[in-house]
Design a protein that fits this description.
Elements lengths: L6 E4 L3 H10 L4 E3 L5 H6 L7 E4 L9 E4 L2 E5 L4 H6 L1 H6 L1 H8 L4 H6 L2 H7 L6 H7 L3 E6 L2 E6 H4 E3 L2 E2 L6 E8 L5 E9 L6 E12 L2 E10 L6 E2 L1 H7 L6 H8 L2 H5 L11 H23 L3
Parallel strand pairs: 1-3, 2-3
Antiparallel strand pairs: 4-5, 5-10, 6-7, 6-10, 8-9, 11-12, 12-13, 13-14
Helix pairs in contact: 10-11, 11-13
Length: 290
């Protein structure tokens, strides 16, 4: 199927992108295109104009910003996965980026486009929520920073306001004694997460001193697993503790678990503790190596 007719526009700066958005109500932004183009071809989206923001060089790159990493919105998944800074300071994010789609998607798709699309089965939102990351959005009236836990609000919906553009993602760097990990049950065709779990664990003298966990893929949007976090905090960093804490994830899922012809809601809910446990164990193991 072919997309409906639309006007193609290019922006070379954020200011120009905002001007074009204001002049073309209903326009969509094009970054890597791996989220938008399929929607256009299936005619699930039929905007009057598409604004290509790919030429905006200021939205690319990874750089230190105090005790955090600032990742430009147009940075590709492949670049995130290959970054030594990301692998060292936010291992779960590098892990997730390396597992997005296939090489073609990773080399063209962008972190900003991915999170703005907010597919519930996407990997990056789950990791960003677990790592206490933040999204930098720029609008006509200036810049604001949105915690990742507040950015994702529902199925393919976010806290972005009209004419705001994702400019960057800011991810706290891990400190000594802190590890992070992301694991998923991947759909064999799409590589999307049927169940995804991300964890960040601080280990002090064999005890889980601080725990952050998020789940995605099986719920409408990535969310923190607070029951798991409470159950593991202060407990020994060992398999029995991880299993007991992971079992509490059912309390965090509520009654809105996604289901489809590939995996029912009941099956996904049953698999959630398995993948949460794996994420906790991997994160704790990495904490012991830092």
């Amino acid at each position: 199927m072919f997309a409906a007719n639309f006007e193609y526009l290019r922006a070379t700066s954020l200011a120009e992108a905002h001007r074009l958005l204001a002049a073309n109500p209903g326009a969509k932004l094009l970054a890597g295109g791996h989220s938008l183009v399929p929607l256009l071809k299936l005619r699930l989206a039929a905007p009057p104009a598409v604004i290509d923001i790919g030429p905006i060089t200021e939205l690319r790159g990874i750089a230190g910003q105090g005790d955090s990493l600032r990742i430009g919105a147009l940075t590709t998944h492949a670049a995130v996965a290959a970054s030594a800074e990301v692998r060292t300071s936010a291992a779960a994010l590098a892990e997730a980026a390396a597992g997005v789609g296939d090489p073609a998607v990773r080399n063209r798709g962008t972190i900003g486009g991915n999170i703005a699309h907010a597919d519930p089965a996407s990997d990056l939102p789950t990791v960003l929520v677990a790592l206490d990351a933040a999204v930098v959005a720029v609008g006509p009236k200036g810049e604001r920073t949105i915690p990742a836990a507040e950015f994702f609000t529902g199925i393919m919906t976010t806290a972005l306001r009209d004419n705001e553009i994702v400019a960057a993602v800011v991810v706290p760097m891990s400190k000594r004694g802190v590890g992070s990990a992301y694991v998923k049950f991947a759909h064999p065709a799409s590589r999307y997460a049927v169940v995804g779990a991300a964890a960040r664990v601080a280990v002090n003298k064999g005890t889980c001193a601080e725990v952050q966990v998020a789940v995605g893929g099986l719920v409408p949007h990535a969310r923190r697993a607070s029951a798991v976090e409470r159950a593991l905090t202060g407990q020994p960093a060992e398999a029995a503790s991880f299993q007991a804490a992971a079992a509490r994830v059912r309390e965090d899922l509520g009654g809105d678990v996604n289901g489809d012809v590939f995996a029912s809601a009941e099956y996904r809910a049953a698999m959630a503790p398995v993948y949460v446990k794996r994420a906790l164990a991997a994160a704790a193991a990495r904490a012991g190596l830092t």
